[in-house]
Write a structure and sequence with these properties.
Elements: H1 4-57, H2 62-84, H3 90-110, H4 116-140, H5 146-172, H6 178-200, H7 208-225, H8 234-261
């Protein structure tokens, strides 16, 4: 028969290793979520930076546009660094290398004088960054996790708002290709699809003002966005985007904290 001291010593080791496994698992989950958020940040910034580029060149809300470009590039650098530290497959490594290339080319273009050619390049870079970040995000996303699904949905809505605003201001800047109008309309439809998902989630009462604000203000903002052919409300469109994103950010924080504290 084992002595009590030996029994408790062995039991203590078992408990210790179990706690180690739990902590390791928790750390791995948090690391995966941080990487998933980094991919989502690149998607968002691919649209925001290009949107700000056109606002700056059209001399509309210049101070905010310059700030968004500067802070956006800094955040994108950090997001790329986070993804670079992840153990990912060869295909994803190649995609990440292209993201770095597109980011570097975007930085060069941002320093050059505005021209129609450079504006077109910024639109191309934004789509390249988007495609690459989307692929990486899909590899990191665990679809069977309800909270991750909630986080991804909210981040997707923020991204779609920036995408809508990007095409709106690009149209005003002279990029009136009909495909840009189609992409804006698709982004609007995508936002509404994700809003339905948000409305099925049981958020706590403390977040009710945020969800109510989104549902109440979205139809108004949608009307502004669909006026792209007129392009006469760039300041109102930007304010509408910012207004909706502030409410969505509250939901994003909720999902992130719930995932990382469990």
């Amino acid at each position: 028969m084992k002595s009590l001291s030996k029994y408790f010593a062995e039991t203590g080791l078992v408990v210790f290793f179990c706690l180690m496994l739990v902590n390791t698992s928790s750390a791995a989950v948090k690391q995966q979520i941080v990487a998933l958020e980094a991919a989502g940040d690149i998607k968002y910034l691919s649209q925001e930076i290009t949107k700000a580029y056109f606002y700056k060149e059209l001399e509309i809300r210049i101070v905010q546009a310059k700030r968004d470009i500067k802070e956006g590039m800094t955040t994108m650098d950090s997001a790329i660094e986070i993804l670079s530290s992840e153990v990912i497959d060869e295909e994803t490594q190649g995609v990440l290398s292209f993201i770095v290339f597109a980011r570097d080319e975007m930085k060069i273009t941002l320093k050059q004088p505005y021209s129609e050619e450079n504006g077109a390049m910024m639109l191309d870079f934004s789509e390249s960054l988007l495609e690459g970040a989307t692929l990486i995000g899909q590899k990191l996303f665990q679809k069977d996790d309800t909270e991750q699904a909630g986080l991804v949905t909210v981040k997707q809505m923020e991204f779609l708002l920036e995408r809508i605003n990007k095409y709106y201001i690009a149209h005003k800047a002279g990029f009136k290709d009909y495909n840009n109008v189609v992409q804006l309309e698709k982004a609007i439809a995508g936002f509404e699809t994700n809003l339905k998902k948000v409305n099925t989630y049981s958020y706590p009462a403390s977040l009710r003002p945020s969800t109510e604000k989104i549902n109440k203000f979205w139809p108004i903002a949608k009307g502004f966005y669909l006026g792209i052919e007129k392009g006469s409300l760039p300041i109102i469109v930007m304010s509408s985007t910012n207004n909706l994103e502030r409410a969505l950010h509250n939901l994003q924080d909720y999902h992130y904290k719930k995932i990382t504290t469990n």
